[in-house]
């Protein structure tokens, strides 16, 4: 879409405001809004200024001036604003016009550019399955003398005896019993359908939606794959629309990996493949799961670099509350054509040559998608470049229920890091693969490590409510 096309959309849709957006290191969107009357061709050439020192992990106050340059291919009309508003994603530049090397979106674009220089293929495609919870109520506090959280849902298993509903109507979702039940157990069909309609209006091709395994309102909506940066853009649209549609229904949505104890958490399984023009590079008929050697080496790169990769794909302390055995969590660094306890799964049902792909199941939606997708691609390309064979390194294939294996057999399987601190240590020891093509810089990695270590420390030094249960009577 050209600048003129965007200006035409503004005119034809009586747009009153244009919202210019960018993402920070954590993947959270920020915005500055201009009246549509102030948006001209020069706006797209010169960009929109903002204060980088007010964004955590960006710039110091002595060098705070930064510029958003809008990407005309990323526009969509906001479905929630009272005044017609057009939203546009932007890249971040310095006042001198250089790409800002801490801009996650620019890093994603550099990863796509690097792929084209390798001779491996022309495009990488990604499709995230980003799960979420929709609650009726959420309260939390973390202070000097008090710390708690409480969530509630009309669907929750713990509400079978609640009287406050004006007559309890039953049909609650049992613990781990929420996978695709019909109404009245599934109370959120209309919410998810409304989300799907709005996603379609925003340009996403929705493939399906359904209730997920956990009690208390867990859901999933799948949208069609696209190239790396476009998929990251789409994921931001997706989260924005899920959050705000839930709000319109008087509810609250969260992509937090483990918001409730004792049930499945929310992951972001990421399907990925590489094409050379129209030719899929991951397919080879008759091989294991119809995977080509290129695909196997890509898997080898993902699994070999997984401990470091997870610092970018699972970058929260809460991520590791989900990554524990027993809740379908993909904690085992192996690949399999059907095993959902494996970190890498190969979908085999109803798959065509062009649909042949690998699914990295470990990530969650606290990840910044621009950074996570770029890092996954670079890990996979490193595997292709160095012919990392997962079969020779003990990464599978493993088509057994890993949780049923003996302790001796389990001990032979590498697991994901047990904490954010461990993942950050792994990244600090293994980040050379991210420097390929100058996609990530060393300065970015060191800044990211410092940013995330501060975050991890802020959690580790706080008193946990469960410590009172364990130790108060000592």
TrEMBL record:
<dbReference type="Pfam" id="PF03951">
    <property type="entry name" value="Gln-synt_N"/>
</dbReference>
<dbReference type="InterPro" id="IPR027303">
    <property type="entry name" value="Gln_synth_gly_rich_site"/>
</dbReference>
<dbReference type="InterPro" id="IPR014746">
    <property type="entry name" value="Gln_synth/guanido_kin_cat_dom"/>
</dbReference>
<dbReference type="InterPro" id="IPR027302">
    <property type="entry name" value="Gln_synth_N_conserv_site"/>
</dbReference>
<dbReference type="InterPro" id="IPR008147">
    <property type="entry name" value="Gln_synt_N"/>
</dbReference>
<feature type="domain" description="GS beta-grasp">
    <location>
        <begin position="13"/>
        <end position="97"/>
    </location>
</feature>
<dbReference type="InterPro" id="IPR036651">
    <property type="entry name" value="Gln_synt_N_sf"/>
</dbReference>
<dbReference type="Pfam" id="PF00120">
    <property type="entry name" value="Gln-synt_C"/>
</dbReference>
<keyword id="KW-0436">Ligase</keyword>
<dbReference type="GO" id="GO:0004356">
    <property type="term" value="F:glutamine synthetase activity"/>
</dbReference>
<keyword id="KW-0547">Nucleotide-binding</keyword>
<dbReference type="InterPro" id="IPR004809">
    <property type="entry name" value="Gln_synth_I"/>
</dbReference>
<keyword id="KW-0067">ATP-binding</keyword>
<protein>
    <recommendedName>
        <fullName>Glutamine synthetase</fullName>
        <ecNumber>6.3.1.2</ecNumber>
    </recommendedName>
</protein>
<keyword id="KW-0963">Cytoplasm</keyword>
<dbReference type="InterPro" id="IPR008146">
    <property type="entry name" value="Gln_synth_cat_dom"/>
</dbReference>
<comment type="similarity">
    <text>Belongs to the glutamine synthetase family.</text>
</comment>
<feature type="domain" description="GS catalytic">
    <location>
        <begin position="104"/>
        <end position="474"/>
    </location>
</feature>
């Amino acid at each position: 879409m050209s600048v003129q096309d965007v200006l035409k959309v503004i005119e034809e849709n009586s747009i009153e405001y244009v919202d210019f957006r960018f993402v920070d290191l954590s993947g959270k969107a920020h915005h500055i809004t201009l009246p549509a009357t102030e948006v001209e061709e020069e706006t797209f050439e010169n960009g929109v200024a903002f204060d980088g020192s007010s964004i955590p992990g960006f710039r110091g106050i002595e060098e705070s001036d930064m510029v958003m340059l809008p990407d005309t291919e990323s526009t969509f009309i906001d479905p929630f604003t009272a005044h017609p508003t057009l939203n546009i994603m932007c890249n971040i530049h310095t006042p001198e016009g250089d790409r800002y090397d801490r801009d996650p979106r620019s890093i994603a674009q550099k990863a796509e550019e690097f792929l084209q220089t390798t001779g491996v293929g022309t495009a990488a495609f990604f499709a995230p399955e980003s799960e979420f919870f929709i609650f009726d109520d959420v309260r939390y506090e973390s202070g000097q003398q008090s710390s708690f959280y409480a969530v509630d849902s009309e669907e929750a298993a713990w509400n079978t005896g609640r009287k406050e509903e004006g007559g309890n109507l039953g049909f609650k979702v049992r613990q781990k019993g929420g996978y695709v039940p019909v109404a009245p157990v599934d109370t959120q069909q209309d919410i998810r359908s409304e989300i799907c309609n709005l996603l379609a209006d925003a340009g996403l091709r929705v493939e399906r939606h359904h209730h997920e395994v956990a009690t208390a309102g867990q859901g999933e909506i799948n949208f069609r794959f696209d190239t790396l940066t476009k998929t990251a853009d789409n994921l931001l649209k997706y989260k924005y629309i899920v959050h705000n549609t839930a709000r319109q229904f008087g509810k609250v949505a969260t992509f937090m990996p483990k918001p409730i104890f004792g049930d499945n958490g929310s992951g972001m399984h990421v399907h990925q493949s590489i094409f050379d023009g129209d030719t899929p590079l991951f397919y080879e008929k008759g091989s294991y799961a119809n995977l080509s050697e290129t695909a196997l080496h890509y898997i080898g790169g993902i699994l070999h670099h997984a401990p470091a990769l997870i610092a970018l794909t699972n970058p929260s302390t809460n991520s590791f509350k989900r990554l524990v055995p027993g809740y379908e969590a993909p904690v085992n660094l192996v690949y399999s054509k059907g095993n959902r306890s494996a970190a890498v799964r190969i979908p085999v049902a109803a798959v065509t040559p062009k649909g042949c792909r690998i699914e990295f199941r470990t990530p969650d939606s606290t990840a910044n998608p621009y950074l996570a997708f770029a890092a996954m691609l670079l890990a996979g390309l490193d595997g292709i470049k160095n012919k990392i064979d997962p079969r020779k390194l003990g990464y599978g294939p493993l088509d057994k229920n890993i949780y049923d294996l003996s302790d001796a057999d389990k001990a032979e399987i590498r697991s994901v890091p047990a904490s954010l601190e461990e993942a950050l240590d792994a990244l600090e020891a293994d980040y050379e693969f991210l420097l390929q093509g100058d996609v990530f810089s060393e300065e970015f990695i060191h800044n990211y490590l410092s940013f995330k270590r501060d975050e991890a420390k802020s959690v580790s030094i706080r008193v946990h409510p469960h410590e009172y249960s364990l130790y108060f009577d000592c």
